[in-house]
Amino acid sequence: MFKTVFYAKKGLAIISLGIAFSCNQEKSNNLISEETADFVSVVVDSAVSPSIDLSVSDSMTYVSEEEPITPYEKAERENTSYAWKRFLEENPNHPNKKEISEKIIRLEVDEILADNQTGQMPSFDNYSTKHSSTSTVEIKNDTGCELTVRYSGVEAKILHIPNGNTQTIILKSGSYKIAASACGKNYAGDEDLHGNYGSTFYISRRYGY
After folding, report:
1. Do you know which InterPro entries this protein is assigned to (predicted)?
2. pLDDT of residue 154
3. How far is 56 from 46, CA to CA, in rounded Å?
4. N- or C-end of the chain: fewer Cβ atoms within 10 A?
5. pTM
């Protein structure tokens, strides 16, 4: 008969095997006395008892569930203009709304510049060669659609100009990446603004046969 003795210990499981042979020989020839066999039986019974501390599982490695992220953290991870726009739509009164709005402008400019379908935007006409701390840009929209112009540089600003209208924007002088959108098309370029500038945006349509 085989009897197995289990000893549970924190972080470790020890297995001891006690073997008792019973046969028809005389007691003097027994390998294990009745007293020893009884002791083994008691230990086996206690080993399988529910009262034993089976803390051996403490030595196992547990994988904790990932903590849920906040909507702000999710937008940070994605870090696209779309992700931040969605965040502001869901959180219109967020305390960092101004900073997030500027981030959206900068991301949109970078995304438009990275698109190989983006057209080249012509340079502005310089109305004054005098350098100043601020620059004024006057833009007329003759595209036939609403015109959106984004500036990303020393500042981040955006203009929405209805068709046929003219608007003026004042920016801190410096280098800017500029992206414009109208009639489903995007255009981009760079400008070093130091003075007064003006530009008329229009879309030239060419017809071929």
Report:
1. DUF6759 (IPR046647)
2. 96
3. 17
4. C
5. 0.65
